[in-house]
Amino acid sequence: MTHTTVNAPERVVSSFFDAYRDRDLTAMTDLCTRNAEFHYLPVEVWGKQRVIRGDGKVNGVGKALWAGLITAFPDLSNQVLSLSSSPDGTVLAEVVLSGTQASAWGPFTNRGQSFSLPHLFVLHVDDGGLIDSITAYWDNASFSRQLGHLEVD
């Protein structure tokens, strides 16, 4: 597969972030394999009886987290700063996510604050032109501060 084909890894990833910007969960998940892996490493929400982590499948945890973000941040957007790929289908995406909170999300009560936060996404596109793995990294402490959520033990 060459990088000029319609399903080139960078084009698939670019389409994914276009769909994310449009808040189109169906289009986002349609660009992924049915069992695509999902790893949002900084996500950890402590409840009374369980801990929810951003680790699982795109069509499970991923879709639920994205739906929650889209609801809590109705103006949620992303700006893709750079994409780079390797011959094995791995794509690195430097992306700034931003939005203004309109409702509670996870441990973050709504204070009407905005955030703008760089993320590093590591995605893998399989030979069929679909994303089969998404991993994301960001500074969760900065995210908390920007939303006015300062947790004290």
How would you summarize this macromolecular structure in one to three sentences?
The protein has 153 residues and is an alpha+beta fold.
Key phrases:
40% strand, six-stranded mixed beta sheet, disordered N terminus, 153 residues, Nuclear Transport Factor 2, Chain: A, alpha+beta, 6 strands
Q: Secondary-structure blueprint of this entry?
A:
Blueprint: H1 9-21, H2 25-30, E1 32-46, E2 51-57, H3 58-72, E3 77-85, E4 90-100, E5 114-125, E6 131-137, H4 140-146
Strand % is 35-45%
CATH C-level label: Alpha Beta
Total domain units: 1
Unreliable sequence segments: 1-7
Shape: globular
Main sheet record: 6 strands, mixed
Task: Report the C-alpha radius of gyration, rounded.
Answer: 16 Å
How many runs of DSSP E, i.e. beta strands? 6
**What is the name of the CATH topology?**
Nuclear Transport Factor 2, Chain: A
Q: What is the topology, as strand order, of the major beta sheet?
A: 2-1-6-5-4-3
- Structural class call reads alpha+beta
Helix content: 25-40%
The tally of helices reads: 4
CATH architecture: Roll
Q: Which series of helices and strands comes N to C?
A: HHEEHEEEEH
Distance between the termini: 52 Å
Mean pLDDT: 88
